[in-house]
Structure formats: C-alpha cells, structure tokens
Amino acid sequence: MKTPATIKIGRRRYKVIKKRHMHYAGLLSYRTKELALATHWRGTVPYTPRQIKETFWHEVIHGILYDMRQYALNSKEKFVDGLAMRIVAVLKQLPKDSR
Ligand SMILES: [Zn+2]
Q1: The CATH number of the domain where 65 resides is what?
Q2: Is residue 30, in this structure, part of any structural domain at all?
Q3: CA gap 23, 54 in Å, rounded
Q4: What's the total number of domains in the chain?
Q5: Where are the alpha helices (DSSP H) in 1-99?
Q6: Is residue 98 part of a domain?
Q7: Maximum Cα–Cα distance for the chain, whole Å?
Q8: Ligand 1 is a single-atom ion; what residues have CB below 5 A from it?
Q9: Residue 96 has what pLDDT?
Q10: Which one of 46, 47, 85, 99 is least enclosed by Cβ atoms within 10 Å?
Q11: Tell me, what's the pLDDT at 85?
C-alpha cells in the first residue's frame, strides 16, 4: 500500500515509516511521533497489502483514540483491530477517486 510520508492524527503529526524487521506488525509511538509498519512477518514472510493496510488503520485508530483521550478503549486491542478491519472493508467499496 502507498503510505504518506507523514500523517496528522488529531493534534499530532506522525512520520510514517516501513521496516522489514519489527517485533510487531505495526507500532505507533506517541513519544517519537512515528507510525511504523512492518513489511514482513518476523523479517521473513511479506505481509499482504491488505494486512499492511489493516495495520496502518489499526495504528491510526490508536492515534485517534489517544488524541480523544479514550485511553481505556485505546488499550483494547481487539476493539482497535475489529474497527480497523471494518474500516478497510468499507474503504474497499468506495470508488478509487473518492476520499
Ligand atoms: Zn494495537
């Protein structure tokens, strides 16, 4: 998936980076303001574009909930994951030129 160099989520702007080796599929650092995406599972098997997109949205949702100070919801990984998957599924139905 094409990703922007930076993304503004609420009041914070995060640098978007892709790495081959990461302990997680994705990571959002509020401290360093980085949204990191792994391109490969454990540095070996490439993630599919769909998986990377879902991870991107997963991290964006963390950023949104953090900005909204919804810390309890933000700590619920299943909630964040479920929301991310559904957002990607809805976006997939939109015409390519729509935002
Ligand atoms: Zn998470």
Answers
A1: 3.30.2010
A2: yes
A3: 17
A4: 1
A5: 49-67, 71-74, 77-92
A6: no
A7: 36
A8: 77
A9: 87
A10: 99
A11: 95
Provide the 3-class DSSP secondary structure of residue 94: coil
Taking CA atoms, 56 is separated from 9, 47, in Å, by: 12, 12
Q: What type of residue is 33?
A: K
Question: Containing domain of residue 42, as a range?
Answer: 6-92
Please check the confidence at residue 99 and state whether its pLDDT lies above 80.
Answer: no
Q: How confident is the model over 54-95, as pLDDT tens digits?
A: 999 999 999 999 999 999 999 999 999 999 999 999 999 999
Residue type, 3: T
- CA–centroid distance, 67 to ligand 1, in Å, is 15
Query: How far does the centroid of ligand 1 lie from the alpha carbon of residue 77, in Å?
Result: 5
Please, which pLDDT band fits residue 29 given cuts at 50, 70 and 90?
very high
Domain membership of residue 97 (yes or no) is: no
Which of the pair, 14 or 97, is modelled with greater confidence? 14
**Is 1 within a domain?**
no
Give me ligand 1 centre to Cα 96, in Å. 27
